[in-house]
Specification:
With 318 residues, this protein is of the alpha/beta class. It has twelve helices and five strands.
Length: 318
């Protein structure tokens, strides 16, 4: 079926979890057709007649458990949620199940994930819905049992699709949090600090992969440009091991820094690391290396023709 918002495009929806074209594929998979949409349209009067009753019974069940009752701290919130639930219930028989419907269902899934409603309660809520709605559907079509059965199946299909969207959205929202936290950890573990006018230090901690190296390189280059620093110290004291890929990443970073006209001093090169680099055949000729950050800082001062002069300690008597 076509969406009310225009032709389907092969792009991610604004919700970010399910593209409209994928939504059409999911409907096709469960066998949801235009005939099902029409059957649900025909159910609209039944839904309107029983909406309030179903919602009240639904929340009586929900409020009978301490874990779910805790989500409704006051009467005002409960009444707001009941009104939203009634709109959700009526939406099942809206008759249009295109992109607008998809966006609405994805937003509902995100809200439940945001408030921390555990999947067991979320999925259980759909079971309650089915228990409350299906007998009413069959009763409404007692005069035409064959149509009642088809309407029953149409409603089962759309509720199944809603459940699947809820699970998809819940997982996607959780993955977004994990990804964001991972990025924050990477940023924390790859700081670039200006320690002196013209000198930046980039300490590396842990192993390097392609993604982390790319981010490290970008942060280092940006900081060099921001501070107009001609010298960069790349400290690998916190890198436990060096393999061919890690060493190559370091060489690429150093080359990129040089293209900006800055000089690099590689510090924290322990004997074991030096041996490994030799065995790997990594060419560090032309790259200043030092065993410690302090030694590298002295090299940086020499390159900038700076001298540190010892002075009297604060408060010392002459």
């Amino acid at each position: 079926m076509a969406s009310r918002t225009g032709p389907l495009e092969r792009r991610k929806s604004t919700a970010g979890e399910v593209a409209p074209v994928d939504w059409e594929g999911r409907k096709a998979f469960v066998g949801f057709t235009s005939d099902d949409a029409q059957l649900l349209r025909d159910l609209r009067p039944v839904a309107e007649a029983y909406a309030g009753e179903v919602v009240e019974e639904f929340y009586r069940r929900f409020l009978s458990f301490p874990e779910t009752r805790a989500f409704f701290a006051d009467e005002a919130r409960l009444n707001r949620v009941k009104a939203m639930q009634k709109q959700y219930f009526l939406g099942l028989t809206e008759g249009e199940y295109g992109e607008a419907y998809l966006r609405n269902r994805l937003e509902i899934g995100r809200v439940h994930q945001r408030i921390g409603l555990a999947p067991r309660w979320y999925m259980g809520a759909y079971s309650i819905y089915m228990q409350l709605t299906f007998p009413r559907v069959l009763a409404a079509f007692a005069h035409d049992l064959e149509k009642g059965q088809r309407a029953f199946l149409a409603l089962l299909k759309i509720i199944t699709l809603d459940k699947e969207l809820a699970v998809t959205t819940y997982i996607a929202a959780g993955e977004e949090i994990i990804t964001r936290q991972s990025q924050e950890i990477v940023e924390i573990s790859t700081p670039v600090i200006q320690v002196w006018n013209g000198v930046v230090v980039a300490p590396l901690i842990g192993s390097l992969d392609s993604q982390r190296t790319q981010q490290f390189m970008e942060r280092l280059l940006e900081r060099i440009v921001e501070t107009n620093s001609p010298v960069a110290l790349v400290d690998i004291t916190g890198v436990p091991t060096i393999d061919t890929q890690t060493a190559q990443h370091l060489v690429e970073t150093i080359t990129a820094v040089r293209l900006l006209g800055a000089q690099v001093v590689l510090t924290g090169v322990r004997p074991a690391i030096a041996q490994t680099l030799v065995h790997l055949g990594i060419d560090l000729s032309g790259i200043s290396t030092r065993s410690s950050l302090a030694a590298g800082l002295r090299v940086a001062f020499d390159l900038l023709d700076l001298r540190v002069v010892a002075g009297a300690a604060p408060g010392a008597r002459e």
